């Protein structure tokens, strides 16, 4: 049965009008009443340029208070929000705008020039206040079955697919997280992850659903994050591995420890190397490892700090409203047996926009088939081995890049490492290492270092040294760029 | 869309197996894994006596670990739970058992004799372990749209009605409460309210959904509750007004203050007198006033301690997933204008069992028409003026005058009867009978007559004999004239 709840922002404006809703490093602050009023004014401006219930509005912006206001304003109107990644090319945006049937593109002024040839009406967020206001019928209730947002994700093959999130998906994601982390009146959440990814977007909804202040930063800057934790009362930060590493380097450089009020470093975006987790443990940083994807509206599996040593390297267990299983080659996998990670729960997307084939292909008996490879140990803890597309099969043996990368980055001279497969006439595929060094070291020394730590077939057969690894806006490694590089070398 | 979540108890047994689930004043403790195993064993015993998915099982018991285990066991099997009030008479039980189409009555041994003539298969909870075990198919998932429990409530007229609660109603009630009170790993909840009422039952589900220990007491004893707070780490207690008063009297007598870890006294079951709230404020007891009823699966409106002085006497605002409105004579009431309190939200029952007329009569456009009278002030805070017109709330138990009047007039010597509430220092209110006799009969004879027909708390505590009842021109009873008469007696 479809559930109806009051609009979460309007609710907080009613029950917690004077509570802080938003804060920035520049010292700008907004209460829930002010945020509600700003969203209402914004909705009137949007109505003035023709946005109405059912409109399909794309947004292209870095994180800002303006973006938060805009997202809530679109829900007040009852429009659908399509989020575009600021790092894509115009051609990629164009595909997503067409595929999502967007009526209008709202963007931060700095992207105006890039987006001008997209053949869609464009409005800059900065100039929206100059538009005429018009009345609109505010959606004071949210139907949890209604789709609110669409975020594109790439599959192993084919075009990107628009993941639809209902209001219910966002609600349940926030509730699942609260049941895991607890809820305190003292909480203040900082997410340096972009809001055009679901990991960043989810913090915006948590703020409205919990009545909790959100600390809004334009992007990731370790100085800003550290100051927010040590000086501005931030208690929870969402990060990916490379951000955690940079934060710890800064701690080391400046001899800083975090106050005990800092209670959660929510770590997502791929498996973290053990030595990173060990260092965080030494620094008493309460790291909650997590596993999730766009389709799960943020994390769906997490590991608590108290388990982080006992179950080092695990992503943990499914959140209270969620379930996890491993599909083997025939039926469900046994403990310790790798297979496809499948998840289920009310935060999981109901499907891809206008793509019933992809939707059908992704679900089995109500379970989302993630395409990721992992296993559960005898206690039911999930270990993510790798994304299925990254699996390297060499001479019949499976090689999981994350495992090899963990060994490579454990060397003190290595800053970052990525491993991908290269087609090979004899073995089918062989692993190739891409390395970023911290201190001088040779390929031969690295080969020696791997002996005894990795089975022979897992040791990279080719070595490439780079200045930095290619990463996307949320700092996630873009392996396909490395594949491209290998391809060019071949040609 | 119907949402599926993993069974909440099995989930806690998986993610928090070693966490404390239950504790008693006698020092008995049970972890979530132990509780899960006990519920599983209990389910096998129930299967052994023929209980299966879809069975309708009535339970008649005071609070105990055995009752908690039983409730979870019934959900593992997929049976429907019908909760009987232990204070009712055999005649009242009989009606509810028939109306709910119960297949079986499970009861604490002490009620066996009273319940033996009910004409339904009976099994004592204490002797259930002696039964043969049988395999069953455990419900590892909960469909939030499925009805799990039925609790009877009386209306102003007619027979008691069976309020159906879905798993979703209980889930949303627990989540609404968590968003209001926050969630801490340190929490331990004590509810001395009986679990056959929804206020007591809800704490059992909160325990499983939050992964939080429940401190189980057989009933209310102020010494036990005080010791639980001061010595056993209880952080939240659910009470009705009379319990709060007795706790404060004990504090006064023993010079006790509660530790700062005690963070919530959740007060329900009818409006609290101002002097009680003021005394609690002086004693720094963090009282959260609340308003709710069986139909809302526990509280739906609450007032935080920080507002308790500024808004003294208010029940507060609707929980995050809930809404509140006041229906006036024509359309919605303005601020300060009294009218019928109406509520909406996913914790509100979908209706009464096998009683579509009552269900239809209780809902207007998706809003539950509570029958209670109140108003909201200009800031939107609810003030409850009167419960369901004539409802008498005595020590947290609801007494419906129509039901008592029906028993009184069934006596051949009684021509007319009217029952109203009289304020009482200990119980909040007690029922008073106004009688017009047809033939000679004494108060004592009437008292005897009520025994066995009415639960003890429903039997009038004061008796008045009149020549006729005050009625208006259209022969409608003017209860306020009886109230006036009581007032004059006092003066």
Could you characterize the architecture of this molecule?
- Two copies of one chain form a homodimer.
- Chain A is an alpha/beta fold and 491 residues long.
- In chain A, strand 25 and strand 26 form a beta hairpin.
- The model of chain A has no long low-confidence stretch (mean pLDDT 91).
- The first copy, chain A, contains 14 helices and 27 strands.
- In chain A, the strands form six sheets. Chain A has a nine-stranded mixed β-sheet with strand order 3-2-12-11-13-14-15-16-17, sandwiched between helices.
- The first copy, chain A, has two domains: 382 residues, Rossmann fold, CATH 3.40.50.12780; 100 residues, GMP Synthetase, Chain A, domain 3 (2-Layer Sandwich), CATH 3.30.300.30.
- The interface between A and B is large, with 36 and 36 residues.
Topology:
Two copies of one chain form a homodimer.
Chain A: E1 4-6, H1 8-15, E2 20-23, E3 29-31, H2 32-48, E4 56-60, H3 65-77, E5 80-84, H4 90-99, E6 104-107, H5 112-115, E7 122-124, E8 141-143, E9 147-153, E10 161-166, H6 167-181, E11 189-190, H7 198-210, E12 214-215, H8 222-231, E13 236-240, H9 241-254, E14 264-268, H10 274-282, E15 287-293, E16 298-303, E17 317-318, E18 323-327, E19 339-344, H11 356-362, E20 363-364, E21 367-376, E22 382-387, E23 392-394, E24 397-399, H12 401-409, E25 414-424, E26 428-437, H13 443-450, E27 462-465, H14 479-490
Parallel strand pairs in A: 2-12, 4-5, 4-6, 5-9, 6-7, 11-12, 11-13, 13-14, 14-15, 26-27
Antiparallel strand pairs in A: 1-8, 2-3, 9-10, 15-16, 16-17, 18-19, 19-21, 20-21, 21-22, 23-24, 25-26
